Amino acid sequence: MAEALRVGIAGLGTVGASVARVLDEKAAELTRQCGRDIVVTAVSARDPKRDRGVDLSTAKWFDDAVQMAERADVDVFVELIGGDEGPARASVKAALEAGRHVVTANKALLAKHGVQLAEIAEKKGVLLNYEAAVAGGIPVIKTMREAMAGNQVTRVFGILNGTCNYILTRMEAEGISFDACLKDAQRLGYAEADPTFDIEGHDTAHKLSILTSLAFGTRIAANDIYMEGISNITQADIRAAAELGYRIKLLGVAQRTDSGIEQRVHPTMVPTASVIAQVHGVTNAVAIETDILGELLLSGPGAGGNATASAVVGDIADIAKSRPGFQHGPVFGWPAKELKPYKKAQMRSHAGGYFIRLTVHDRIGVFAAIAKRMADNDISLESIVQQAAGPETEAQKTVILVTHETTEAAVRKAVEGVTKDGHLTDKPQVIRIERAE
Ligand SMILES: NC(=O)c1ccc[n+]([C@@H]2O[C@H](COP(=O)([O-])OP(=O)(O)OC[C@H]3O[C@@H](n4cnc5c(N)ncnc54)[C@H](OP(=O)(O)O)[C@@H]3O)[C@@H](O)[C@H]2O)c1
């Protein structure tokens, strides 16, 4: 049997401790599958005294993850510390430069420094595996990198943040407010004490930036992503969506268009009957649309110790199965040096259907004025409905518009016009509608 694969794990928190436990509990199966033992020989975290729920007494302890990364007696460096700078970046870089394979779950690091790290890995002929960085346990990186050769991706989109999907699912199912759902999510451990990163779309954007690079062979450009979170979604939107045959999801979407590549994260209305609309709670899903395959949808657990450990252990097993001298495929599907500069399509040129909800003074002529602003901007309406805004607001009405395909620029201009006309009593709400099977 080949020599054991020696693994060093940096970070023994939710994911790191789960990885150590799975490697221990599944040791016999992994040996049979990989043709060699996988042994944790080194570990690093902040607190050497903390009980990690798994016996790590035979592994050498390192206070400094960088020192561990450089050790010649570690074949695979597993980074599960987190963060886009500091010890995570320094240790991954050190491991790759020392010719060690690296496995990481760190989307923030890859979104910021992925291309540079991929260049080092490819130069050194080692693997940089990151299945757990996007959609946790769902094997989307493998699918896109290995199983779709020859396919040209036209669009990739998904529910990439479990916290947001949990909140939107409960808002719809129970009719409760965003704030109440968020508090519950925090109490149940589905949302961080500071939830901004999740609910305002940053986490989705990091993951989307990695998928975009894999899909289109472009350099990662996370800072360029158009981003809107879910904190201004109200019960009025959820109810109106349901009446119109839609469900609201926070989607990350990357799409090839005539003017470049669109990357956007925002609340989105998807048809209630579509497959992605059936993805509830903390579950994640990724849809990939290609010229040969059509649309593929993968869904499953996007976070949590076990699900994430499943992806990390899969990445380690791939390294255990690879043979010395074997030429590894490029990290992002295309050689890092050949990843094209990303050509950004402006959000203003985005084309699609729109849901617009306006709260207006209950006055004669308002309805006609709104319809005129739409027509002046060449917006064709699928429907326009006027409703009472609620018993406590007799002097107001709600007007709900659904447009046929139009552009973001036209919608912004029309809504600006309606606002200038002085008919609105509240901020206008605009939600993009996404085509989905
Ligand atoms: N949690 C999930 O469901 C999930 C899903 C997908 C991806 N990820 C990614 O996985 C990574 C880890 O997440 P997590 O949830 O496991 O985080 P976590 O529970 O906060 O664990 C972080 C670990 O890093 C250790 N650490 C901190 N500073 C260190 C340093 N300077 N040197 C060595 N170790 C250090 C901590 O040590 P102490 O324990 O001693 O404090 C802790 O064990 C992140 O990149 C995250 O984005 C997480």
Report on this structure.
- It is a single chain.
- This protein is an alpha/beta fold.
- It folds into three domains: 5-134 and 305-321, Rossmann fold; 143-301, 2-Layer Sandwich (Dihydrodipicolinate Reductase, domain 2); 349-433, ACT domain (Alpha-Beta Plaits).
- It is built from 14 helices and 17 strands.
- The protein has helices spanning 14-25, 27-34, 65-69, 86-97, 107-124, 140-146, 162-174, 178-187, 196-199, 202-216, 235-244, 305-321, 366-376, 408-420; strands at 5-10, 38-44, 60-62, 76-79, 101-104, 128-129, 153-159, 226-227, 246-257, 260-271, 283-290, 294-301, 351-361, 381-388, 396-403, 406-407, 429-433.
- Helix 5 packs parallel to helix 10 (202-216) and helix 13 packs antiparallel against helix 14 (408-420).
- The two termini are 48 Å apart.
- Bound molecules: NADP nicotinamide-adenine-dinucleotide phosphate (NAP).
- NADP nicotinamide-adenine-dinucleotide phosphate binds at residues 10-16, 44-47, 50, 65, 80-82, 87, 105-107, 132, 136, 303-304, 308.
- Residues 355-437 form the ACT domain.
Offer a quick outline of the entry.
By secondary structure, this protein is an alpha/beta fold. It has 14 helices and 17 strands.
Produce the secondary structure layout:
Layout: E1 5-10, H1 14-25, H2 27-34, E2 38-44, E3 60-62, H3 65-69, E4 76-79, H4 86-97, E5 101-104, H5 107-124, E6 128-129, H6 140-146, E7 153-159, H7 162-174, H8 178-187, H9 196-199, H10 202-216, E8 226-227, H11 235-244, E9 246-257, E10 260-271, E11 283-290, E12 294-301, H12 305-321, E13 351-361, H13 366-376, E14 381-388, E15 396-403, E16 406-407, H14 408-420, E17 429-433
Helix pairs in contact: 1-12, 4-5, 5-10, 7-8, 13-14
The protein binds NADP nicotinamide-adenine-dinucleotide phosphate.
